[in-house]
Amino acid sequence: MSNRQYAVMFALLLGSTAIVAPSYAAEQTMQEQSLYHRLGGYDAIAAVTDEFIGRLTSDPQFARFFTSLSTDSKLRLRQLVVDQLCAATGGPCIFSGRTMKQAHKGLGITKAEWDRSAEHLAASLDKFHVGTREKKEVLAAVTTLEPEIVEK
Predict the structure, then answer these.
(1) Is the pTM value of this prediction over 0.70?
(2) What's the rounded Cα separation, in Å, for the pair 26 and 65?
(3) What's the number of domains the chain is made of?
(4) Same structural domain for residues 2 and 76?
């Protein structure tokens, strides 16, 4: 290959890098702006989930939902909630659970129980100092599930 050919290839490589770099930077910016990233990523979502489930399991109003669960079932529930929140906020997780309607059918979850669980989620987000904007977005996303979970 001649020096001229090397120079042309080098120029093409530089040109293609200039084209790829801005799109990669834009992609990074979009990812950083996802709710998942603004919340702090997987570990932050897992910490909020642990706090949330801890609040639910220690609240006598929810005892009927957790008393018969084995340790393994509790761990599976925790992972499903983490995966669901991760996926719903734009993270890389895949939620592999059943639909909310299927998972909660027959449990007789009331509006009062729904509201109380939302209070626990909000308190869990507050414990980790989640920003107002992010907290509102998480609660708004969860609120869309109410018709599938609360039985009339």
Answers:
(1) yes
(2) 45
(3) 2
(4) no
Q: Are residues 16 and 64 in the same domain?
A: no
Spatial distance between the Cα atoms of 14 and 152, rounded to a whole number of angstroms: 63
At residue 29, the pLDDT reads: 53
The pLDDT score that the predictor gives to residue 26 is 47
Q: Across residues 78-83, what is the average pLDDT?
A: 98
- Give one DSSP letter per residue of 3-57, joined into a string: HHHHHHHHHHHHHHHHHHHHHHHHHHHHHHTSHHHHHTSHHHHHHHHHHHHHHHH
CATH of the domain at 75: 1.10.490.10
Give the torsion through C-alpha atoms of 90, 94, 100, 106, to 10 deg: -150
CA distance 97 to 82: 11
Q: How many residues does the chain have?
A: 152
Please report the pLDDT score of residue 32 as a whole number: 52
Contact 92, 113 (CB under 8 A): no
The pLDDT value recorded for residue 19 is 37
By the 8 A CB rule, do 113 and 56 touch? Answer: no
CB of 41 closer than 8 Å to CB of 90: no
User: Can you give the residue range of the structural domain that contains 17?
Assistant: 1-33
